[in-house]
Amino acid sequence: MGLVEEKEVTTELLPFLRVHNDGTVERLYNPEFAPPSLAETNGDMLSKDIIISPEFSARLYLPSKTTNKLPILVYFHGGGFCIESAFSILSHQYINTIASQANALVISVDYRLARQTRGV
């Protein structure tokens, strides 16, 4: 039997991900998801999840106590296509604050992350 080459870590972005010398990527950070706020909650905001296409979904944030036309802000979460989600707890809290303070309808778009690869 041949020797199995030990995978060497070439890059670590702790606590988020690790890249090995064979090109495999380990995603170390898996955020918890927050449910949409169907009732008035933080800052009197309502939120609802929608499906845009098979590849994209979004969470809508709407101030509940407005009868006027609102500006629309489209928000794409950071994370370099490797980590996070529009539905994670931190994103949810952050967008609730933005939508409330800006008195705007916010569409927080979720997208497919880069594929996590693991060696055999």
Automatic annotation (TrEMBL):
- Name of this chain's protein: Alpha/beta hydrolase fold-3 domain-containing protein
MF terms in GO: hydrolase activity
Pfam family of this protein, just one?
Answer: Abhydrolase_3
**Record-stated family:** Belongs to the 'GDXG' lipolytic enzyme family.
Which InterPro entries would you find in this protein's record? AB_hydrolase_3, AB_hydrolase_fold, Carboxylest/Gibb_receptor
Q: Which domain of life does this protein belong to?
A: Eukaryota
Q: Which residues form the Alpha/beta hydrolase fold-3 domain?
A: 73-116
